[in-house]
Amino acid sequence: MTQRLLIIGFSNVVTTSGFAQPTIARLAETVPGLEVFRVGLGALQPQVIPPYLRLASERLGPFSHVLLEIATSAYATHPLANVAAGQEILADILLTLQEIGAEPAFLLHVRRWTRPVVLDFGGLIRQLCHELDLPLLDLAEGWIAQHGATQVAAWLRDDTHTTAEGGSVMAERLVPFLQEVLARPPVLAGLRPAPPLWRRRALDLAQMLPDCPSETHDCLDLPQDYVRLEGRGVTIDPGRVLRVQGLVHLYHAAGGHVSVTPDPPGPGLRVTMIDPLSHFTRIGVLPFDFFRGCDMRRLLVGEPEEAPEIGLVRGQQERPLRAYLGPLLTLDPTAS
What we know:
Elements: E1 4-9, H1 11-14, H2 20-30, E2 35-40, H3 49-60, E3 65-69, H4 83-100, E4 103-109, H5 121-132, E5 136-139, H6 141-147, H7 149-154, H8 164-183, E6 198-203, H9 205-208, E7 214-219, E8 222-229, E9 234-236, E10 242-251, E11 257-262, E12 269-272, E13 282-287, E14 294-296, E15 299-301, E16 323-333
Parallel strand pairs: 1-2, 1-3, 3-4, 4-5
Antiparallel strand pairs: 6-16, 7-8, 8-16, 9-15, 10-13, 10-14, 10-16, 11-12, 11-15
């Protein structure tokens, strides 16, 4: 199979001054025939990585290798984060990679934490890679140890996102690392790591709501179908009780406030699907109980409402007012 590499992560994968673009450009010059894709999930958290690995594999794959930059999200600072939960997420990621036939490599990206760290998620990744002999490049503490805190700070434009120079320096280290990863024999395929308790999956709403129009939006190289709500609400009824981790939606310039009510007439949530950065469209997730999920038979999504208090950094709000709903992120017990 032709080697095909997916780079997946959060805002450090999205930003144009980060490591992803110069890495892709240098790999194109040094690894003939390699195809590289990236999926940047913005300000989301590692709980969404397993379903998005599947979505990326279905839409863009198959992949031979996946580079994961997943330790810089705010997950490490959340009071409900803990070792068992972090290990559970990593176990689901590994099992998902086995299922899509891809070999993993992990990148630890530098971040200066401004809030107390509850869970050393990067440390869990280090431990996992050591135990299973998985490739790991440390451009967090290891980068600081090599270049010094002052120099690394000069390569950052905030607490984690690099300047263009910083992203280029990261790419200088990352490209030879990835060349070694691409050349090494497969490791993950032959492993039998401890299985997760739950499998994190995505349930397509476009098939469940056939009377609603749907549109395909391409957010950071990942085309995906979204149900369009305009002048109406919907009731999502899968016909059985599901444990739902979250509801995917889009932030976009025509967004507003939307009420989301699990199992009506239970208490609802008010979700705002526009923010000051919505001059560009990107993926958001409404999590239920910090992605631990809740059991629900139905989900009522209300008609979009105006959000006049939201101003965009660039451009103007668009109309007609509408909402875009992506898949439900579900939690299914691992089959015994």
